[in-house]
Amino acid sequence: MLFFHLLVFIVLSAIVAQAFTPYTYKLQTLAGTGVAGPYENGGLAKDSVLTSPYSAWSDADGNIYFTDPALHVVRKITAGDVGSNSIEGFAGAGQTTYQPSEEGDDAYNAHLNRPRGVWGDNKGNIFIADTVNFRVRIVNSAGKIFTLAGNGLQGHSDGPATTSNLNSPFAGFTDASGKTYIADLHACEIRVISSIDPSSAVLGTLIGDYRNCVSTQYNSPTTITTSLTLGKPFALWGDNAGNLYFPEVTGDRIQQIDTNAGKISTFLSGLNEPTGVWGDTNGNIFFSERGNGGAVKLVSSTKTVTSLPVDSGIIGPRGIWGDTFGNIYVPDNKKHKIYMIAHVSAGSLTPSTTGSSSGGSLVVGGGISYDQQDTFSGNGKLASTVNLAGTFWVWSDKDNNLYLTMPNRHLVIRIDVFTNVVTIVAGIPADGGYNGASTPIDATNAKLYYPGGLWGDDKGKLYIADGGNRRVRVVDLAASTISNWAGTAGSGSTYSGAPGAVDLVGPAHVWGDKDGNIYVVDTHAVFKYTKATDTLALFAGNPTQWGFHFDSDPLKITTTAGQWSSLGQLGGDSNGNIFFVDQGNSIVWKVSSAGVASVVAGDVSTLLPTLHTEQNCDTNKNSPLCTTLLYPYGLFVDNSGTVFTTSFWNGVSPRVIAISSDMSSFDVVYSPSGNPMGIYGDGQGTIFVTLNSGVEVFVADTRRRLESPMKTNLRRV
């Protein structure tokens, strides 16, 4: 039956060529009118007066903090759609002379003196490089400000942080352990503060000699000492692996320090007065240059440098930062503005600091008819040049990189959200089969056989339903290795035990909940892996029996008496309810946390006539039980509990529907250009739908800062 349904989808897949519009960047003014002037508090960011914005930083909610040293303040731009963001003061009263009474006071009462840097940690603290007060300040989550380092006297000394000297603290970065690194500009040093507790913190020097400001090219990793020389470090950023990056504005290079190995090396040279640096979680590094009229550039993980479009708008960038949605923020102290280089798809767009946008479109793949898909030559190429027709399932990681299965090519591929480069994650193009084992092997040298659904956890493991091999495989994304996780590839009927000892008939999909439990769709049944016991057991149905039957009302799903037919994608909500599509019966099931099953969507007039009559479908046409689904295939549950499902073809046109969280109503939210198959969302409003001709990406009105609440309508990105 697995191969029958697979062939059905291959035959039904249309030969539709879709143009691909890659992710791109669009310059927007986030704050400032372009005219310098006195400090004003409140109002819309777009109408605000900025004088000399320098450093910027964004928190997890999308709020933007930036310094305005000429006004001696740090300001905050609230998250929201560009043009409707408000601006307010965060720290600084506009006075410059430090007062001891400020310690523990509200941050907006503090006296800051030309603050240049602002950044935050993972505990809700925000740090300020109070440059001409020769201090580093910390603002806790309650809004109270304290001195973390510096005694107010310009100079250089190590020791207890609050009694030691700083020369010109300009920027900083605080790692997950609470260690804070400071770019001390005119001392040409990177200083380090041992902790975020002012009472015990110790100030030291990581690298640099304040008596000798000379930029040095480090062509190979060199052990860091205080006798090594640096140019003037203008900014500072660190990744999660312990690497620090800082631009030397006087050396025209970006240096990299591996704090774990204690080594420094030159990351990039030949620049033109670099002023800022920031990196995403995909290995891309962004930097700003103030020379030659200003520029913002991206360095890919392969060291390819690309200029981002600034449309002659940015001329005096003094820093750079990015958010989790891929937007880049650039303070321009010559234009008196904060610019946002929005990470969006092409078209007429209105970017937002919540990551949403309207208008335009993103359709990935196309260009080659279906019968030409025997091979795959897209590895390492832009998605715009790659035929992605025939993609079935999609999953996105926390950074919105897309992972796709291509069953007829026996592949799993990845599309980088920033660069749009396609890479093979697992499988050998057009070479289906099996050569795996329980021990890890190179994922790109492993054979898959008609891979189905996929899902990844928060530890870098990607689970793949390798249907033709009757197994679930797991890819370690960091190591690029694959190993068997579940299934014996045998024909037995062992339906409980260690995952590798359970017999699977044809796993089609996999999904995991927040507690680490994993669900596997196996033809007409669902298995559940319970993390607490490390066992996989039959959860619903029977892999070798299909139809529509249950022996009680309501059905106790923990028994195997229920029968379903060719189950598709599944997912769950935050209350422990599990949902899955029953393709053969054209319905959607809900299994409550108590183990009770019920039909929540689909025409049940034949299957459950009594239930159909109760719905009064002649007048209650908005009931999910009064809609016709023909071969529903994909399913995704968002954070609000809304259930999205795809109808492969409903006799009129393909569609995506959204079922309200209380299961009382539904809306047709999109009629795509091709037949919708898999569906997945990032939990923040972005919805990905695979089509027979590629992938389409939408934004649902689910984010709290959008102009309207959830209307269960999708908007193209």
Describe the structure.
- It is built from two helices and 54 strands.
- Strand 38 (507-512) and strand 39 (518-522) form a beta hairpin.
- It starts with a helix and ends with a strand.
- Mean pLDDT is 81; it is low at 1-23, 344-374, 551-561 and 699-717.
Q: Portion of residues in helices? A: under 10%
- Give the low-pLDDT segments: 1-23, 344-374, 551-561, 699-717
Rg from alpha-carbon coordinates: 28 Å
In terms of structural class, how would the helical and strand content be classed? mainly beta
Mean pLDDT: 81
- End-to-end separation: 37 Å
Number of strands: 54
Query: Could you say which overall geometry the principal axes of the C-alpha atoms support?
Result: elongated
Q: Count of helices?
A: 2
Going across the major beta sheet, what is the strand order? 10-14-13-12-11
Largest sheet report? 5 strands, antiparallel
Estimated share of beta-strand residues: 35-45%
Task: Please specify the SSE layout and strand pairing.
Blueprint (H helix, E strand, L loop, with lengths): L1 H11 L10 E9 L24 E3 L5 E5 L4 E5 L9 E5 L25 E4 L5 E5 L4 E5 L5 E5 L9 E2 L8 E6 L5 E5 L4 E5 L8 E6 L14 E2 L13 E2 L4 E6 L4 E6 L4 E7 L4 E6 L5 E5 L5 E5 L5 E3 L13 E2 L5 E5 L4 E9 L17 E2 L28 E4 L5 E5 L4 E5 L6 E5 L14 E2 L8 E6 L4 E6 L4 E6 L4 E6 L9 E2 L9 E6 L5 E5 L2 E6 L4 E7 L13 E2 L10 E6 L5 E5 L4 E5 L4 E6 L7 H7 L16 E6 L5 E5 L7 E5 L6 E5 L5 E6 L4 E6 L2 E7 L13 E3 L1
